[in-house]
Design brief:
Layout (H helix, E strand, L loop, with lengths): L8 E4 L3 H6 E3 L3 E2 L5 H15 L18 E5 L3 H12 L5 E6 L5 H6 L5 E3 L3
């Protein structure tokens, strides 16, 4: 699962303590409770993924089609975040579950190079 090859954004909505314990490289961390206030940041990141120069006025909303893969610990907060993002105008949001459930749990257990372990 590499959203970057698809031009997407991996959004981790766990708490800061959970994030510091370990996270996927290049994931964007926004705790779900902060997401409504930080939607402009997600819009900016999605826009940057379009790799476009100046945007013509008639294309100002193309970034809303950037795939956003949302994850947390079990999937519940990711589902909440998915709804927030959809209300924020994003069209391609997917709850990919949590790090404690499949398929993400297996990726971490096998020592995926994409997983950054926290310092103890």
């Amino acid at each position: 699962m590499d959203p970057y090859h698809a031009g997407g954004l991996l959004l981790d909505v766990r708490t800061t303590a959970e994030w510091k314990a370990g996270h996927f490289q290049n994931a964007v961390h926004v705790p779900v409770d902060e997401l409504p206030a930080r939607l402009p940041e997600i819009h900016d990141r999605a826009f940057a993924l379009q790799r476009m120069g100046p945007i013509p006025e008639d294309c100002a909303y193309l970034h809303l089609d950037v795939p956003i893969l949302v994850m947390c610990k079990l999937g519940r907060r990711a589902e909440r975040a998915k709804r927030i993002l959809e209300r924020g105008g994003f069209n391609r949001v997917c709850n990919i579950g949590g790090i404690d459930v499949e398929p993400l749990a297996s990726m971490i257990d096998v020592g995926s190079r994409a997983w950054v372990r926290g310092l103890e």
